[in-house]
């Protein structure tokens, strides 16, 4: 699994560099936009450090794309059918949350992403990760607390929440069991 995980991280790292360079941005410019140190971005782009989910959200937000789009561009071929075995899976090295990109890479402005959040996890996401999209969270299994700015949403299996205006958020699993949820993301800029 380490080889697979390392390979995914290498492709994501390379994609971050491609996205930055295609915009004509320096490391310093991306660092300033993302609120991340230049040294950290340099380490990530060189494959010397694996980014956390929070860090990927900051970088993708600064690049004006979703984390889903960033990973999809690193991982997937275009096509209408994305088989389960070919769906990109990424594990956060810090929290060990598991992220599976379900939807095929296409011209549709929708991403479907399934997350398995370990018990006791608390994953912050900056508002910049949500600037250019509308999102729903559909809790499939377990319990999830979604903190949206000052608002706390306690969700049970089957609940579906539409996110409000972009705000710093946290995905929290306060239970003793893993939870699984689906993110449905509409990317109006990709339409």
If you had to describe this structure to a student in words, what would you say it looks like?
The chain has 5 helices and 10 strands, in the order H-H-H-H-H-E-E-E-E-E-E-E-E-E-E. Strand 6 and strand 7 form a beta hairpin. Helix content is 30%, strand content 28%. A 6-stranded antiparallel sheet has the order 1-2-3-10-5-8. Strands 4-9-6-7 form a 4-stranded antiparallel sheet. It is an alpha+beta fold and 191 residues long.
Features:
about 190 residues; alpha+beta; six-stranded antiparallel sheet; 5 helices; 10 strands; about 30% helix; globular
Arithmetic mean of pLDDT: 87
N-to-C series of helices and strands? HHHHHEEEEEEEEEE
**Main beta-sheet annotation:** 6 strands, antiparallel
Q: Enumerate the strands of the largest sheet in spatial order, edge to edge or round the barrel.
A: 1-2-3-10-5-8
* Separation, N- and C-terminal Cα atoms: 35 Å
Number of helices: 5
Helical residues, percent? 25-40%
């Amino acid at each position: 699994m380490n080889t697979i995980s390392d390979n995914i991280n290498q492709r994501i790292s390379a994609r971050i560099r491609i996205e930055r360079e295609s915009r004509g941005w320096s490391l310093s410019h991306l660092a300033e936009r993302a609120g991340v140190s230049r040294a950290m971005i340099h380490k990530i782009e060189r494959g010397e450090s694996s980014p956390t989910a929070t860090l990927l959200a900051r970088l993708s937000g600064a690049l004006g794309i979703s984390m889903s789009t960033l990973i999809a561009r690193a991982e997937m071929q275009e096509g209408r059918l994305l088989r389960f075995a070919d769906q990109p899976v990424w594990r956060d090295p810090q929290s060990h949350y598991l992220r599976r990109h379900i939807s095929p890479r296409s011209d549709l402005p929708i991403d479907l992403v399934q997350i398995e959040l370990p018990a006791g996890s608390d994953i912050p996401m900056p508002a910049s990760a949500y600037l250019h999209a509308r999102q729903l969270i559909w809790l499939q299994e377990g319990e999830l607390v979604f903190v949206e700015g000052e608002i706390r949403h306690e969700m049970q299996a089957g609940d579906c929440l539409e996110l409000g205006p972009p705000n710093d958020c946290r995905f929290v699993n306060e239970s003793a069991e893993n939870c699984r949820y689906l993110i449905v993301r509409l990317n109006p800029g990709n339409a």
